[in-house]
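dude i think i finally got it to work??
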Amino acid sequence: GHDLAGMAQARGMTAARLHAIKQDIERGLDRQNLSVAGLALRHRCTARSIQRMFEAEGTTFTDYVSTQRLARAHQLLSDPRLRGEKISAVALDCGFGDVSYFNRVFRRRYGAAPSDVRARTRQDIGHG
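look at this
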């Protein structure tokens, strides 16, 4: 039969590796060239195995990275201390080279434009 302990151990290693890869992605969100290939090299596994790990979670590498980039952007735009930052600068900080693309995917994800999120932040200031 199957070696259940071995399978569980392999799953545990996969979970640990996926966790490390996700941390790596988070640290590298500002880099536009965040690639599966680069991560595979650093984590000593194949690009395909990384893609499979994300697929096992019901997403894809590309979608995951995009979601993380947008979440970071939303967080930055909601930060009252960063109100002076240009939206294009926030987009770049989150690895989006193209502001119009950023605006489009941000709106699709959050149902509001980056400028709307920023405007709401501004209104909340006086009503603490």
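The radius of gyration is 18 Å.
im so relieved honestly
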